Amino acid sequence: MDTRTRVNQALKQAMKDKEAGRLATLRLINAAIKDREIAARGAGEDTLIGDVDVLAIMGKMTKQRKESARAYEEGGRLDLAERELDEISIIEEFLPKQLNDDEVAAAIREAVGATGAESIRDMGKVMGALKEKYTGQMDFGKVGGMVKTALCTAKD
Question: What confidence tens digit (pLDDT) does each residue in 26-46 have?
Fold first, then answer.
């Protein structure tokens, strides 16, 4: 079952169970998916986005909420920070398990080998391969630096 279907089923269940907070978060997920589809339609692309795109949207939503929660905590608004963290936990129910550092390093080595990357100029190929296979399972902001290090080390 694809992620979108799982979200819609959870949304229906949240309506039945009258879980207002969960329902609001699931509606935000659906709205983000629909926004992406509308943008794709405007660009002349396929109107239905795939599971990889849905996972990328949800990963971005999680990252935004983590940043917001950190800002709220620094500002002393713990009630708002807690709400953001609750939303994160709901979104993460639909994301695949996050890879640990050793698994990320192994995935990078595999992607470097599979793409035949030899220098930092091949970083785009490696990142593309990782995003294709591991979307939603790793933080690509952190992975970029690790890929750069791996490619610089491989060159030496």
Answer: 999 999 999 988 888 877 766
Q: Tell me how far apart the terminal alpha carbons of the chain are, to the nearest angstrom.
A: 45
Please tell me whether the overall predicted TM-score, pTM, comes out greater than 0.85 for this model.
no
**Could you report the per-residue pLDDT of 110-123, keeping only the tens digit for each?**
988 888 888 888 88
pLDDT at residue 14 greater than cutoff 90: yes
Over the chain, what HEC string results? CCHHHHHHHHHHHHHHHCCHHHHHHHHHHHHHHHHHHHHHHHCCCCCCCCHHHHHHHHHHHHHHHHHHHHHHHHCCCHHHHHHHHHHHHHHHCCCCCCCCHHHHHHHHHHHHHHHCCCCHHHHHHHHHHHHHHHCCCCCHHHHHHHHHHHHHHHHC
What domains appear along the chain, each with residue ranges and CATH number?
Answer: 3-92 (1.10.1510.10), 101-155 (1.10.10.410)
Query: Which residue reads 């990889």 in tokens?
Result: 52
